[in-house]
Amino acid sequence: MSFLKAIADNRNAGSLATRMRRRRFAFFLSLLTRVKRPITILDVGGTQDFWVMMGQEALGDAHITLLNLAAQPVSSRGFTSVAGDARDLSLYGDASFDVVFSNSVIEHLGPAFADQRRMAHEIRRVAKRYFVQTPNRYFPIEPHFLIPGFQFLPLEARVWLLSHFRLGWYDRIPDKRDAKREVESIALLSEKQVRELFPAAEIYKEKIAGITKSFVAYHGWETA
Prior knowledge:
Layout: H1 2-8, H2 16-32, E1 39-44, H3 48-54, E2 62-68, E3 79-83, E4 99-103, H4 113-126, E5 130-135, H5 155-164, H6 176-184, H7 191-197, E6 202-208, E7 211-219
Parallel strand pairs: 1-2, 1-4, 2-3, 4-5
Antiparallel strand pairs: 5-7, 6-7
Helix pairs in contact: 5-6
């Protein structure tokens, strides 16, 4: 478990997960070169630390709005932080942002696929172009609990494991109701579901040893 956590730790600049994020961000930057400055970016579920780690200075003249359930601390004039719900972006009109970016967020709206559908709809609505990443449900190692095949176990088994053991990024949650809430909050997506949520998008597949680890749905860049 400690080995898996080490290679999956996004806070570690040398981890496999961080290197993959950097490659993904390089792809994002290659798309962003097509967009005239200044650029407005809505990051659904992101933090300032992520952008700084990825190399915010490479964006050029860009303003980033961070949207989370609770406002995040920011220390740069290039950022604005707002509290909101990814399933309801009615604060913003259609095509309000040049880019909507979201990294490993949409899978946290489980268990109802309808909530993921609402988030996808809102992203498509407020974005002139978007870039949305999410882990692959069929990658062998579940990326949050770091247990092979964890996502395919019966709900009762997943709840029991989390209520008895520390798993991945989660401390043990003794209360079974709380453990169930955490387990149910994550609903990994298949490629078919990603394509259903973003029917007009191209799909970029990130692979490890030939196995797709995650998907990026991106659209609108051809008209940048």
